[in-house]
Amino acid sequence: MEPTATPLIALDGVRKSYNLGRPNEAEVLHGVSLALGTGEFAALIGPSGSGKSTLLNILGLLEPMTAGSYRIQGEEASGLDDTELTMRRRASLGFVFQFHHLLPAFTALENVTLPALMREGRISVARREHARAVLAAMGLADAMGKRPGELSGGMQQRVAIARALVLQPPLVLADEPTGNLDRASSDEVFALMRRMHAELSTSFLVVTHDPRLAERCDRVIELVDGRIESDERRAAATAL
Fold first, then answer.
1. Could you give the angle at the alpha carbon of 46 between the alpha carbons of 41 and 50, nearest 5°?
2. With left for phi above 0 and alpha for psi between -120 and 50, is residue 168 left, alpha or beta?
3. Is the pLDDT reported for residue 200 higher than 90?
4. Of the candidates 142, 179, 175, which has an alpha carbon nearest to the alpha carbon of residue 159?
5. Buried b (16+ CB within 10 A) or exposed e, 114-144
6. Which three-class secondary structure state does DSSP give residue 155?
7. What φ, ψ does residue 153 adopt, rounded to 5°?
8. Separation between Cα atoms, residue 179 and residue 186, nearest integer Å
9. How many CB atoms lie within 10 A of CB 178?
10. 43 pairs with which residues across the strands?
11. For 103-130, how does the pLDDT look when each residue is reduced to its tens digit (9 = 90+)?
12. Mean pLDDT across the stretch 77-91?
């Protein structure tokens, strides 16, 4: 799938420092510029300590940048207050993490309907039925009433992906989404993300240490020592 010409997100000269004004001040991102279009499926790779998690947190509106510009769907993020950041995050972003972070006391269906509850203050019949449909598309039609502890690791991660996609956000940020899975489950979950990307036109940015998965992405962005080292687009990556 080809990305659209207008960037979904665009970073320009983004810098991030910790412990500002202290003797141990450290800059971990050094002027990162990056754009991601609608319909892209990209991998973010790099060695440990390269700044991947920090960059993902900034993209996810979870922590502020020190300098630079970040525009998400054309809106400058640095000018948003906490309430506006929360609203933008809920409207534009879905998150998948290495550890699924499902609520253990809730069923799979209840976990997947949580984003609607948080954004709209209620779960309508339509939202609940849509959540059921998304879980069914994940191959979890028979697991909707089960709690996370009753599901395998791969099934738990599929529930987490359903939760990220249920409100159909333009962009899903996935931080090592298969890092806690065996190879077979990892391949299954990755193939599922590729299928959802193709069906929904949702953009994905996937942080991964697995070179096999990076090879299957349409674009591979390498971050080294807080700088973009390479950015390779591929004509025809395969999902499996």
1. 125
2. left
3. no
4. 142
5. bbbeeeeeebeeebeebbbebbebbebeebb
6. helix
7. -60, -40
8. 8
9. 26
10. 206, 220
11. 999 999 999 999 888 888 888 899 899 9
12. 90
Q: Find out whether 1 and 197 touch, Cβ atoms under 8 Å.
A: yes
- Give the number of other Cβ atoms within 10 Å of residue 14's Cβ: 23
Task: Name every residue whose Cβ is closer than 8 Å to that of residue 100 and which is 6 or more positions away in sequence.
Answer: 148, 156, 157, 159, 160
Residue 185 pLDDT: 81
Structural domains of the chain ordered from first start? 37-63+81-233 (3.40.50.300)
**What is the model's pLDDT at position 240?**
46
Considering the chain, what percentage of its residues have pLDDT values greater than 70? Answer: 95
Look at residue 44 and give its three-state secondary structure: strand
Q: What is the DSSP string of 132-151?
A: HHHHHHTT-TT-TT--GGGS
DSSP string, 85-123: HHHHHHHHEEEEESS----TTS-HHHHHHHHHHHHHSS-
Instruction: Identify whether the C-beta of residue 122 lies closer than 8 Å to the C-beta of residue 150.
Output: no
Chain-centre distance of CA 196, in angstroms? 13
Pairing of strands 219-224, 41-45: parallel
* Residues found in the chain: 240
